[in-house]
Design a protein that fits this description.
The protein is mainly alpha-helical and about 110 residues long. It is about 60% helix and about 0% strand. It has a domain at about 30-100. The longest helix has about 45 residues, at about 45-85. About 0% of the residues are buried.
Amino acid sequence: MSRAQDTSHAQDAGRPDTAESDEERRVVRFGTEWRAFIRRQNPDRLTALDELIDERIERRALARFYRRVRHAAVAVTVAAFAIAQFGIDRLPIVRQLWRLLRGEVR
């Protein structure tokens, strides 16, 4: 059947003829290297690939978490040194927090 005779892609009665349609079929043409790669895949290789991808996603999530913790630690350290330099007795709220931490709540 030639392309001109193929009418399966023509507009159906219940299907709109727009590019934004969810039912619109899209054709992706892969190069020869990708086609060879896809042909070489088997369930074991795909399972291993899924595991590698999951490990990478988990590593990235942990890296983001540790980066946030490190930034928070740096901010707390800088704030603590700034408070110590300024003087703990000069800020009433800091003085109250310090007493709370030491267990001297009044």
